[in-house]
Write a structure and sequence with these properties.
Pectate Lyase C-like, disordered C terminus, mainly beta, 21-stranded mixed beta sheet
């Protein structure tokens, strides 16, 4: 027994020693023989997680996708190492050029330029990641590549910094949380933390005059930190719980200390489009547009599967009251207003309510949000895509009251929603209840302060009267208890890339925007 015990002890001591040796083994730096896909792949295959592969100066077209997991990939600079995206997406429309696969250890990718080759649009990102752990994407020049430049899947700790996005009517960064975003919408907020995707010290430039581009888009419960960036002729945007089908909208955003500059050809009247969620917007310098934000809720005038519209009949909204008033239209045929002779309403008493045309025979725009009313007439918003609904003589109407609406701007976490969407699976329900129901979401207003619009104080606002200042959003008021994540991001000092003047003498042809000073 003693001999057997000694053998077992010796065996486990050897295992422990080998394990500890693996933990303390220094990371290696390996050099690819060239920038070709084959040379870079060979260097990566001979590396272990934690190692770094450095690409030399040169140019190469890649016709195969590269997957990285734990191994860093660093070029010699944005004006020295050039990769041409030459994937044949007619064969496979899915793959990004470079996919960063989940890894428990930190790794980075940076210091090179990506150019478009003989390829079609890529809807899933030139660089994409499903990282749950820390990852840094930095000093990459996306030089007019096709479609989305970076796609972040999953609740991750990815830092994107010192990148340059030359866009041609496409998206710089698209961010999603895990799954449909249900877990994010059921979880408490964590403003000022490191465990959300961060985009800082980047430049987004739209190179196509008169064509809209998006610097950042977010959906599926995404939580975003966007700061110290320069956005030129680009829209900052997020999706709501609507046109993305089963995908929920963006959950939260922290947008501060950015420069937004638009020229007269810019097609939007605002710099930021907010369709969902809550957050902070402060210290931004904005020029060339009329408004800081457009805060909207598209379900106010359209129905989207599987959620329906905010018309008083969807179980997903908090319906305060239905059939508050009803009757028939007494005005002209085809009127883009509702008229009821002798109604004697108080002026604007129905602002923010929803009016429904119960006899409208057109498409889906048979309800809308009331923006004003006189003693006998009600005016309402047009729908997002289809224009205003109309009333003809004798058509029936009703007015309903809905607040809040599912995942609307200024609303926060609630009950967990589960399920899929037909025909792929059962439609969503509230977890534990098995039915579609208002998920008891709490108020979580948007706070804005210290923003500048064309040289004067800039305020956020909404054309939707049921998204109200003083309730769903606040101006000139810092969010109580909010503390931003320290700048620069803790991961900026990580890795071997270093950027201009960094490890290996790497150089980059472009410089990050000057930091915008913000007084809080």
């Amino acid at each position: 027994m003693n001999v057997l015990f000694s053998l077992h002890r010796a065996h486990w001591l050897a295992v422990i020693i080998l394990f500890l040796a693996g933990l303390t083994a220094p990371a290696a730096t390996n050099f690819a023989a060239s920038v070709t896909f084959e040379a870079v792949t060979a260097a990566i295959n001979s590396s272990a997680p934690g190692d770094t592969v450095i690409m030399p100066p040169g140019t190469a077209a890649w016709s195969s996708p590269l997957t990285l997991s734990g191994v860093s990939l660093v070029g010699s600079g944005t004006n020295q190492t050039f990769i041409i995206d030459n994937l044949d997406r007619n064969v496979n429309t899915q793959p990004p050029l470079i996919f960063l696969h989940s890894s428990t250890n930190f790794f980075e990718i940076g210091n090179f330029q990506i150019l478009p080759g003989n390829t079609t649009k890529n809807w899933h990102g030139i660089i994409a990641t499903d990282m749950a752990g820390p990852c840094r994407i930095h000093h990459i020049f996306f030089n007019q590549v096709n479609d989305k430049n970076i796609m972040l899947y999953g609740a991750n700790q990815t830092l994107i910094d010192h990148c340059w996005f030359y866009l041609k009517g496409n998206e710089g960064v698209l961010v999603r949380d895990t799954g449909y975003g249900d877990a994010s919408w059921a979880s408490p907020m964590n403003y000022g933390r490191q465990n959300v995707p961060c985009i800082e010290d980047c430049i987004f430039t739209n190179v196509l005059v008169g064509v809209s581009s998006v610097s950042l888009d977010a959906e599926a419960g995404a939580r975003i930190l966007f700061r110290y960036n320069a956005v030129l002729n680009n829209l900052w945007a997020n999706h709501g719980t609507e046109s993305g089908a089963r995908l929920r909208g963006c959950r939260s955003f922290e947008i501060y200390s950015n420069l937004f500059a638009m020229d007269p050809t810019w097609s939007f009247p605002y710099a930021m489009s907010i369709r969902s969620g809550s957050g902070v917007i402060f210290g931004n310098t904005i020029t060339g547009v009329k408004y800081v934000t457009g805060i909207v809720n598209y379900r106010n005038g359209e129905r989207f599967d599987p959620w329906g519209g905010a018309d008083g009949y969807s179980p997903w909204d908090n319906v305060v009251a239905t059939n508050v008033i009803s009757g028939v239209h007494s005005g002209a045929n085809g009127a883009n207003y509702l008229e009821v002779a002798g109604a004697n309403w108080t002026v604007n008493q129905w602002v923010g309510y929803t009016v429904v045309n119960k006899d409208f025979s057109g498409a889906s725009w048979n309800f809308s949000t009331i923006v004003s009313n006189s003693a006998t007439q009600i005016l309402f918003n047009p729908a997002k895509d289809y224009g205003a609904m109309t009333f003809s003589t004798g058509q029936r109407f009703e007015v309903n009251q809905i607040y809040p609406m599912l995942d609307q701007p200024g609303i926060g976490s609630g009950d967990l929603i589960v399920g899929d969407q037909q025909p792929w699976g059962p439609n969503p329900t509230v977890a534990g209840l098995g039915v579609a129901k208002w998920p008891h979401q709490v108020s979580d207003p948007i706070y804005a302060w210290s923003n500048s619009l064309n040289g004067t104080p800039g305020k956020i606002g909404s054309d939707f009267p049921n998204i109200k200042e003083g309730r769903d959003f606040f101006n000139d008021l810092p969010k109580p208890g909010y503390e931003p994540l320290p700048y620069p991001h803790p991961l900026q000092g990580s890795g071997n890339g270093g950027g201009s003047g960094g490890s290996g003498g790497s150089t980059n042809s472009l410089q990050p925007p000057a930091r915008v000073w913000v007084q809080q």
